[in-house]
Amino acid sequence: MYDDVLRSNAADLAASELATAGVNVGVDIEPRTVMVHVPTAPTGTSPTLDVKIQESDDNATWRDYAAFPQINAAGQYFLSTKSNAPYRRAISTLGGTTPNFGKVLIAFVPAGRYTNW
Known about the structure:
Radius of gyration: 14 Å
Distance between the termini: 10 Å
CATH class: Mainly Beta
Helix content: under 10%
Shape: globular
């Protein structure tokens, strides 16, 4: 259902993930859409989630190239990007007191922003 997964929803996102593994998604010919899916309302005091997408030519040296607006509620958030680098990863930074965003999924979606394929 998803082209390339940058963060699996197997575990809760309850701590910042600042050095995730890179995924070889290839060079973009057309812009691609990344989705952040927050399945349930976050818990904690004033929880916030900052997600940025980084790119790399060699899966070793990373640079920021796209960022979502700050997230503080359940929902699906979309960002279209285009990169000339083959590797991508998602960096998630949590704020607030004991934040937990649940089983957050971050992935490229094949149909862009549309939820009805």
